[in-house]
Design brief:
The protein contains three helices and five strands. It is of the alpha+beta class. The protein has a single domain (about 10-140), classed as Hotdog Thioesterase (Thiol Ester Dehydrase, Chain A, Roll). It has a five-stranded antiparallel beta sheet with strand order 1-3-4-5-2, covered by helices on one side. Strand 3 (about 80-85) and strand 4 form a beta hairpin. The chain is elongated and about 45 Å long. It starts with 5 loop residues before the first strand and ends with a helix. About 20% of the residues are buried. The mean pLDDT is about 95.
Length: about 140
């Protein structure tokens, strides 16, 4: 169930062989890629893809990312990425991530923060018009 404060998306992913280290577990750097998989799925589900943002004349670089590891993932396992957009009055995209293994145990959690830059690479201090319209449509 989704509240008016946050929107969530859940995506299932299978660990590929090339994502594991010699110990057979997912190399820590791939978790940031999994976060991106979550953002991409979120965008497709809720109508806020990178292509939508680019068509509106903006880019959204990541300015901060955090990642905490609790349990390992191994080759062949499937896991869920739960991606939540945290509603903010600031002109930024704040996503929180939770990765759950096949036993529904929390494997990893993290957050990314993205800002809006216009076509001249100027930082937007207020929500771009297209983004505010999207938030209004989504009830945020």
């Amino acid at each position: 169930m989704q509240s008016k404060e946050n929107l969530t998306c859940t995506e299932e992913v299978r660990v590929r062989f090339n994502e594991t280290d010699p110990l057979g577990i997912v190399w820590h750097g791939h978790y940031i890629v999994y976060f991106e998989d979550g953002r991409e799925a979120f965008g497709r589900q809720h109508g806020l893809t990178y292509l939508d943002i680019q068509k509106a004349g903006y880019v959204t670089p990541i300015v901060k990312s955090t990642c905490e590891h609790f349990l390992p993932l191994k080759y062949g396992e499937t896991f869920k990425i739960v991606t939540t957009l945290v509603n903010s009055t600031s002109a930024k995209l704040i996503y929180r991530y939770e990765l759950f293994n096949e036993e529904n145990k929390l494997v990893c959690s993290g957050e990314t923060i993205q800002v809006f830059l216009d076509s001249d690479n100027n930082l937007c201090l207020y929500n771009p018009e297209f983004f505010q319209a999207w938030k209004d449509k989504m009830g945020l």
